[in-house]
Design brief:
Elements: E1 7-8, H1 10-23, E2 29-35, E3 42-47, H2 64-75, E4 79-89, H3 97-102, E5 108-115, E6 118-127, E7 134-141, E8 150-151
Parallel strand pairs: 4-5
Antiparallel strand pairs: 1-8, 2-3, 2-4, 5-6, 6-7
Length: 152
C-alpha cells in the first residue's frame, strides 16, 4: 500500500456502512486490504465478531485462523492488510481504551458509528510507528455519506 495514498471507493464505504448496520446492536468487524503497489485501491472483507462478550458491547475479535486464511488468500491476489474496520453501536467514533491498546502501529483503524441502527459517521485512525500516538486521519459524519469515495 502506498503509505501516502488511501482510496476507499464508494462500494467499499457502502460495504462497511451496511455491515455496521446489519450487525447492530453488536459490533461489526472486518479487514481492509490494499492492493500492493497500487494507487491505494482497497477491499473490505467482513469478518465474524467472535468475541465471547459480544453482547456486552465494546469488544470485537476476529478469529486468528480466519484472519490468517484471508491474509493468505488476498496476498495471492497482490493485496496486504491495510487495517481493520469495526463499528461503535450507539457510541462515539473514537477509539476506546481497548481499541488503542490493540492497535498495530502503521495500520488503519476505521470506526463506523451506528446510532439506533443507522450509520452516522466514519472516522479513520492510525497509531504512529515512531511515538505510538494515535492520530485521526479522516472524519466524515452524516447518514447520507455512504456513497462517498475517500481519497487522501
Amino acid at each position: 500500500m502506498n503509505e501516502d495514498r488511501i482510496n476507499l471507493s464508494g462500494d467499499v464505504y457502502k460495504s462497511i456502512c451496511a455491515h455496521a448496520e446489519a450487525e447492530y446492536p453488536n459490533e461489526a468487524c472486518g479487514i481492509v486490504f490494499a492492493k500492493d503497489g497500487s494507487d491505494g485501491e482497497m477491499i473490505y472483507e467482513k469478518a465474524e465478531n467472535v468475541d465471547p462478550d459480544i453482547k456486552k458491547r465494546g469488544h470485537f475479535s476476529i478469529d486468528p485462523i480466519k484472519l490468517f486464511e484471508l491474509e493468505e488468500e488476498y496476498s495471492q491476489k497482490g493485496f496486504s492488510i491495510a487495517g481493520f474496520a469495526h463499528s461503535h453501536p450507539d457510541a462515539a467514533c473514537i477509539p476506546s481504551h481497548e481499541d488503542e491498546k490493540n492497535m498495530i502501529p502503521g495500520l488503519l483503524y476505521l470506526i463506523a458509528g451506528v446510532n439506533k441502527g443507522k450509520y452516522n459517521c466514519l472516522r479513520i485512525w492510525k497509531k504512529d510507528t515512531e511515538d505510538n500516538s494515535t492520530k485521526e486521519i479522516f472524519q466524515n459524519e452524516g447518514s447520507d455519506i455512504c456513497n462517498t469515495q475517500i481519497i487522501f
